[in-house]
Amino acid sequence: MEFCDDDLTNFEAEGATLSTPPDAQGYVEHEGAHIWYATYGSGSPVILLHGGFGHSGNWSYQLPDLLAAGHRAILIDSRGHGRSTRDARPHTYELMASDVLAVMNTLNLERAAVVGWSDGACIALILADEAPKRIGGAFFFGCNMDPSGLKQIDERNPLLFRCLSRHAKDYAQLSATPDQFDEFTAAVRIMMSSQPNYTAQDLSRISVPVLIVQAEHDEFIKHEHAEYLARSIPNAKLIILNGVSHFAPLQRPHIFNAAMLAFVTEVLPDGPPTRSSVTS
Prior knowledge:
Residues 46-259 form the AB hydrolase-1 domain. Pfam families: Abhydrolase_6. This is Pimeloyl-ACP methyl ester carboxylesterase. This protein has helices at residues 9-14, 63-68, 93-106, 119-130, 158-174, 181-194, 200-203, 223-232, 248-251, 253-267; strands at 24-30, 33-40, 44-49, 71-76, 112-117, 135-141, 210-215, 237-241. The protein is α/β, with parallel strands linked by helices. The chain has one domain (9-267): Alpha/Beta hydrolase fold, catalytic domain (Rossmann fold), CATH 3.40.50.1820. Strands 1-2-4-3-5-6-7-8 form an eight-stranded mixed β-sheet, with helices on both faces. β1 and β2 (33-40) form a beta hairpin. It is globular and about 45 Å long.
């Protein structure tokens, strides 16, 4: 029987933890912050970028399938999230995208596919735009490229409460500033409500393969916005994940993982990853 946690009660109670020890982990000092990363396995590289307020452990249901398919997984805690620190500057998706490139440079990764969820998808698309030679493809799940794509959020939704409750517990356990969750979330909310601000013309210059993945019951993103992205990004494809919401990677991993693995298999070459000393 496939794992199912549609109401996130399991996630709230137990979290999503990585049971597999990493092959390597560490910090990259970049732009006033220490950015935590971990790598698992070998093969063609896939970078996993988590959503807002969370951390890389939220990919725990995706990691085993990526490794079984022969990929190398690179997990990163976004600036200010999880084990990564932040400075006093406002959060921006562009700054977090530059953090990802800094990790790639440290690992001597010339090119990788990027799987982004929510805020991580915003980062993935910025990487696809600003560093197309480094990005083999961008898997874009549940996010917007301008504030008009956001729905009016129902604060009474119990899934949102359970998810934020889990994030608060994890932050207290992992962060170098465990007592600053409220300040941290306030700073991230400002970013979410005002960024990114890509126009259709901006989107039209993206040249890497893009898959836009929209949940049938997404609590945050308008369906028509996902369709707009698919029209505006050259050769982008759109798929709908039925029966799930913005939290699909936690709710029904088998559905999310099937789409993810099909995409990375399509965009990544077979064999070991290409390495270089690229620094930009």
